[in-house]
Specification:
The protein is mainly α. Helix content is 60%, strand content 5%. It contains nine helices and six strands. The chain has a two-stranded antiparallel sheet with strand order 1-2.
Length: 293
């Protein structure tokens, strides 16, 4: 094991810096950078589909806060011991900056926020979700850097040369000094980035629409999350001996795959319109008048 240490991935010495009395947390920066990257890519893809560039920010204004709240709620529900178990501190459930956002809560609540935003902008949710899907994977990839800085959510011990070095304060009790762990943050980063590239290629190659790119995002992500989750050793709720996120990945992934096939048979190709309602004659006349001005 010690012979592999020079090749091991080091963990950052700190995940928090201070600007006077204000803490600057790497986890928060990773989340924010992921959101910015997702919005940039979504905006480009939305415009390519014929949408208005400003729509992306307007929808994100609703989707992002909803997603963060939903992600935190899912994390607390699926990992309750740190907050409501023996020695737990319920108030820490509000400390998002310490880490802990469950992707499925973020997706579910974020979808509600996106629906509100899309409805207010007069556009359909499905094509906007298709534009978002690759960017969402990029955001998740960048967000995993926060876990690296926090030295959390790593996998079991490994003798592989790319094992992750963890400080003694964050190592599981009983593991000898020098133990290396699977860098699950890195596995998920690479999987998500490869998945984002795959979605972009498939979308352009087969002209997917009607929410199928987003459904394919779910299939791609759950496939990776399934085997990565099986490597992790952080505390988690178990159902029939498996972590709850393993079951979630199986059920949600299979459901998305079935929906992908069904929607593809009913609605092949791209969406014929991005709007909730077609423009009226009066709208066309106003647009023509504005252009003449």
């Amino acid at each position: 094991m010690n012979a592999l240490l020079p090749l091991a991935i080091p963990s950052p010495s700190t995940g928090v810096w201070h600007l006077g009395p204000f803490p600057l947390r790497a986890y928060a920066f990773a989340i924010l950078l992921g959101i910015v990257a997702a919005l940039w890519l979504t905006r480009r893809r939305w415009v390519e589909r014929g949408g208005d560039a400003d729509t992306t920010l307007e929808v994100a204004f609703w989707a992002v806060p909803f997603g963060i709240v939903g992600g935190r709620i899912y994390h607390v529900i699926t990992s309750p011991d740190a907050y409501f178990g023996v020695g737990g501190d319920p108030i820490r459930a509000l400390y998002i900056w310490e880490g802990g956002l469950g992707i499925w809560g973020a997706v579910a609540f974020g979808a509600v926020g996106a629906w509100i935003g899309c409805h207010r902008q007069g556009v359909r949710l499905a094509p906007w979700g298709d534009a978002l899907a690759p960017g969402l994977l990029v955001a998740q990839a960048i967000g995993r850097l926060g876990n690296w800085f926090n030295q959390e959510l790593f996998g079991g011990p490994t003798t592989l040369p790319w094992g992750l070095r963890i400080d003694a304060a964050h190592m599981p009790v009983g593991d000898p000094a020098g133990t290396l762990y699977h860098p699950t943050f890195l596995y998920e980063m690479l999987w998500c980035l490869a998945g984002a590239a795959l979605l972009v290629w498939i979308d352009r190659r087969f002209q997917l629409g009607h929410g199928r790119v987003f459904l394919l995002y779910i299939v791609v992500y759950t496939t990776g999350r399934l085997w990565i989750e099986l490597l992790r050793i952080d505390p988690a709720e178990l159902i029939l001996g498996l972590r709850i996120n393993v079951w979630t990945s199986i059920i949600v992934g299979l459901g998305a795959l079935v929906a992908f096939v069904v929607v593809g048979r009913r609605h092949p190709g791209r969406d014929t319109t991005l709007l909730l309602a077609p423009p009226t004659v009066q709208d066309d006349e106003e647009i023509a008048t504005d252009s003449a001005r």
